[in-house]
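Notes from the 1:1 (GR / supervisor)

We went over the backlog. Supervisor wanted to see one worked example end to end before approving the batch request, so GR pasted a single chain during the call. The sequence is below; no edits were made to it. Supervisor asked that the structure be written out right there so they could see what the output format looks like.
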Amino acid sequence: MSVDSDTFRAVLGRFATGITIITGRDDAGVDHGMTVSAFSSVSLNPPLVLACIDHAASMRELLGTLTNIGINILSEGQEAISRRFSGKDIERFDGLGYTRGASGVALLDDALAHMEARIVERHEAGDHLIVIAQVEAAEAFAERPLLYYRSGYAQLTR
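Structure output shown during the call:
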C-alpha cells in the first residue's frame, strides 16, 4: 500500500509550520541562506534541532560541509524575507539587516528567535538531506510567528 504524492502533499499541507532561514558562511566568507519550513526540535538534553533539505535546494551541497549554521525563526512581518530566501535571488542579503553570531553566521534582524548551532550529524533520506545540529546559543524575542499552512503564509489571529 502506498500513498500517491498529491495526497501526501495535501495531507502534510494541513500541518502548520513555522518558517526558518538557515544561514551559513562558506570558506571564502560568503554568506548563504535559504528558507526552511521542515524544521524541528529533536532533544532538550543535549539541545538538538533538525532541518530537512531537498537535494535540489540552493544550500544542499554547502550544508554537506558546513560546521556552523544560524537558524532564524521568522516573525509575522517577514514574509518578504521568506520569499527572498526561497527564490533564485543570488544576492539574498543585500539591504537586509543582520548581526553576526559568535560563529560568524548571519542572524536576521526582527526575527522571532535566533539559534547558532554546530552540525553534528547528516543523514540521507529519500530526496532530502537531514541535518542535525546542536544548539550552542539561542535568543528569543517578543514577536508573533510567521506560519506556513496549505501552501501559503498565515499569521496567528489574536
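Supervisor's comment: Helices lie at 5-12, 60-63, 79-86.
Batch request approved.
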